Amino acid sequence: MDAQVRISVQEADFDLTAEYAALRHGEQIGAIVSFCGLVRGWDGGVAMRLEHYPGMTERALLQIAHQAQARWPLTGITIIHRVGELHPGAQIVLVLTASAHRRAAYQANEFIMDYLKTEAPFWKQEVDATGGHWVDARETDQRARQRWEAEYDG
Amino acid sequence: MDAQVRISVQEADFDLTAEYAALRHGEQIGAIVSFCGLVRGWDGGVAMRLEHYPGMTERALLQIAHQAQARWPLTGITIIHRVGELHPGAQIVLVLTASAHRRAAYQANEFIMDYLKTEAPFWKQEVDATGGHWVDARETDQRARQRWEAEYDG
Amino acid sequence: MKTLELRYFARLRDALGCQAERVDVPADIDTPRQLIAWLRQRGGAWDSELSGQRPFRVAINQDMSQLDDPIPPGAEVAIFPPVTGG
Amino acid sequence: MKTLELRYFARLRDALGCQAERVDVPADIDTPRQLIAWLRQRGGAWDSELSGQRPFRVAINQDMSQLDDPIPPGAEVAIFPPVTGG
Fold first, then answer.
1. Fewer CB atoms inside 10 Å of the end CB: C or N, chain A?
2. What distance in Å separates the CA atoms of residue B20 and residue B17, rounded to the nearest whole number?
3. What is the ipTM of this complex?
4. Which of B149, B98, B113 lies closest to A102, judged by CA?
5. For residue C63, what pLDDT is reported?
6. Where along chain D do its domains lie?
7. Residue A64: per-residue pLDDT
8. Is B34 in CB contact (< 8 Å) with chain A?
């Protein structure tokens, strides 16, 4: 099935409403799942800085979208990721998946986030009063991605 | 953890933006997942009529929210379900889950929809030119719910 | 005798031609299973719809219940088809 | 000799003090594993950061790659820490 795919890497904030409205059309969509990631605060935290690899980032996100599309019957996929300096509470990532069926929309959305966390070239730096500190990759994110390799989608 | 819980059964349409904004506060939320169910069209279909059991419906949805809350660390849960006559393309159900962690937000959201589909007293009638036809319950919805009974949340 | 508030919904209400009724049932009717058997004695749609050939669900005082759960006196007992919301 | 465009990101770029460079490598350097060994000969941070004690990833022409994938002539090869977006 051909899904409408939109990928954006941007400094600007995004608008869930507008992105949801853009995917909601026609009468064959039964489910739209959205994931919004927000910057969590931490003790002494001032901001989060997000670096990325221009060119490769869009390419990696598009590949992840295509993998999801190949695996589930989707009518639309939107992936927006912000870069630059973001303060606690800010929106950082948005993933929308639309499908005739709720399970496809849920599963594809979680799949995209799990792959994004391990395959898309973004790096976070936590900024506090002493400066910037690179965040280490988390083992739990690796495991979250790996379960899709073993799992037959149910 | 105490989650902010909002339940509504209503004829009026709902607004994803407003509901999302109501859950997004503080600096400890890392993930907000939303599910929007839409009425799908079908050949000759005119509308979907949704009947419910006033009183029990709210009670059942609240119980489902509390079960989700007991199972995952959530900061907020919103469940809105429309009743009455709805046309293809219309929004019918909205579930929002907010958490510090994305997996909790995803899993709780899917859990709530699976339980809602099998435990909340709503009944659908498809209306076409010949009148209204009650929709039969689907075996796949039963199975979707049952997997939560077996599954240890990962 | 004990008094129960019965409610019917959706396809089952249409088939039975009844939305709600107050009934006095024999004192020894303690469970939905016994109540259903008592209702089937009315014959016609009551007998055929509640025979179990088509699935139905029961709620006691607005909680989903099993066929052998106790029915308290004065309870609101609802009988309806499997739910189809969402 | 073949020419490669190297790029470094995030913590690794800071540690190496280098963001991007064009290098001429011996013609027999065909894979990221061989390229890494060649870069480590520079010593200092190059040797320690690329020793494998801290994990790193490699992309060839903007595709995530394995250590033994072929590097085409003129390729853009990026070396960076495991990603942490989302």
1. C
2. 5
3. 0.94
4. B113
5. 97
6. 2-80
7. 98
8. yes
